[in-house]
């Protein structure tokens, strides 16, 4: 039991570390402004490195507090940090209080607040993750779940990333396309069905090793010798792949994150991989379970159809046997008057005009004359019937006719 608790605690610790890596810690900011132009009198480093860079949404709040002398609160005030391709948005909850001089007039504004970016990202991740779990629970198609998961990660990742999921074939020797909404179609088609093995790109190697494989520069890594031309054509510079494993350790597939340029993964990247690799495993295992269930149901339905067909055939044979037995009994009664009738006596309810050629009898002593076709039917359907025709030499002569 102690070992079980230790494993559980370790799992919870991993989850906590992933959450911290994804969302970091909230940043507290403080600043004091003077005059109607809101000149910074004092501010902590966090304010200067965040809101101090972009006061677009803060200045209107400062103006209102300075003008009215009333405190104001700003929720999720948006700030753009950085410029160009590295720019990112952040959000803050801010409280703005008027600062008064000795005469009671407003001389400036004090701002205190806390960053809420992490909270918003966490809420979004939880909402997206919940939606994926709901899709899995309602047995949405696996391709739909994996495609939605890939798009979700691409949107949540702090930097440009392209996500790919490959599914392992039952023998674990090849990987098939699962989802890759942002990778070029020609690239997805080219790697569909790649083998698992050492040195087969990032994904083939990760599947073979059953452990993550991080290639930071596709242009120089030997794992990509056979696929480098494809990566160049697709504009890919780095690829980090993680195996998707079942609860019993079996290979389900791989989960890969591509980048346009060579790059080393950050803690946030690895945390996203761990969080969603588990979700992908759940979706794939649920899909396999459903496939096995459908296959079992199909086999059962086929067995039931076969049983029904056999039962119907048996009933048909029983009915035919009963009718033929009745005809034998009727023919036996007729034998007293006509030892060798002219026409077949085994023609059923509609009769038969064929010449009576062969005499058959059963173990109860009933006998009848019939044509070759109806005699053969009697031999098949009525138990203990044999050929009794002395003229034709018995059963052996009939079989060899």
From TrEMBL:
<dbReference type="InterPro" id="IPR003018">
    <property type="entry name" value="GAF"/>
</dbReference>
<dbReference type="Pfam" id="PF13185">
    <property type="entry name" value="GAF_2"/>
</dbReference>
<dbReference type="InterPro" id="IPR029016">
    <property type="entry name" value="GAF-like_dom_sf"/>
</dbReference>
<protein>
    <submittedName>
        <fullName>GAF domain-containing protein</fullName>
    </submittedName>
</protein>
<keyword id="KW-0175">Coiled coil</keyword>
<feature type="coiled-coil region">
    <location>
        <begin position="286"/>
        <end position="313"/>
    </location>
</feature>
<feature type="domain" description="GAF">
    <location>
        <begin position="128"/>
        <end position="294"/>
    </location>
</feature>
């Amino acid at each position: 039991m102690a070992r079980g608790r230790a494993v559980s605690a370790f799992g919870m610790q991993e989850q906590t570390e992933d959450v911290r890596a994804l969302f970091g810690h909230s940043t507290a900011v403080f600043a004091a402004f003077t005059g109607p132009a809101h000149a910074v009198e004092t501010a902590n480093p966090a304010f200067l490195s965040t809101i101090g860079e972009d006061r677009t949404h803060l200045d209107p709040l400062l103006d209102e507090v300075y003008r009215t002398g009333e405190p104001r609160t700003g929720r999720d005030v948006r700030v753009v940090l950085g410029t160009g391709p590295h720019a990112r948005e952040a959000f803050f909850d801010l409280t703005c209080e008027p600062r008064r001089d000795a005469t009671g007039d407003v001389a400036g504004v004090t701002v205190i607040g806390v960053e809420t970016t992490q909270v918003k990202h966490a809420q979004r991740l939880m909402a997206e993750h919940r939606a994926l779990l709901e899709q899995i629970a309602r047995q949405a198609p696996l391709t739909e779940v994996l495609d939605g998961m890939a798009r979700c990660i691409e949107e949540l990742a702090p930097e440009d990333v392209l996500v790919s999921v490959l599914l392992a074939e039952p023998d674990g020797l090849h990987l098939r396309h699962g989802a890759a909404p942002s990778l070029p179609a020609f690239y997805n088609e080219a790697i569909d069905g790649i083998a698992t093995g050492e040195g087969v790109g990032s994904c083939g190697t990760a599947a073979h090793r059953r452990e993550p494989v991080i290639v930071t520069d596709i242009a120089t890594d030997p794992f990509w010798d056979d696929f480098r031309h494809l990566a160049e054509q697709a504009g890919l510079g780095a690829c980090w792949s993680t195996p998707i494993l079942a609860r019993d350790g079996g290979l389900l597939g791989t989960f890969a994150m591509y980048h346009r340029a060579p790059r080393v993964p950050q803690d946030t990247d690895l945390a996203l991989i761990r969080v969603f690799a588990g979700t992908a495993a759940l979706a794939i295992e649920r899909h396999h379970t459903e496939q096995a269930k459908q296959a079992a149901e199909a086999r059962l339905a086929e067995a039931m159809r076969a049983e029904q067909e056999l039962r119907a055939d048996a009933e048909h044979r029983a009915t035919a046997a009963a009718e033929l037995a009745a005809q034998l009994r009727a023919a036996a009664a007729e034998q007293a008057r006509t030892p060798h009738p002219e026409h077949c006596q085994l023609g059923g309810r509609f009769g038969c005009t064929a010449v009576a050629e062969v005499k058959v009898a059963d173990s109860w002593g009933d006998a009848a004359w019939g044509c070759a076709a109806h005699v053969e039917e009697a031999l098949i359907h009525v138990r203990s019937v044999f050929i009794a025709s002395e003229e034709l030499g018995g059963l052996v002569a009939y079989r060899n006719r």
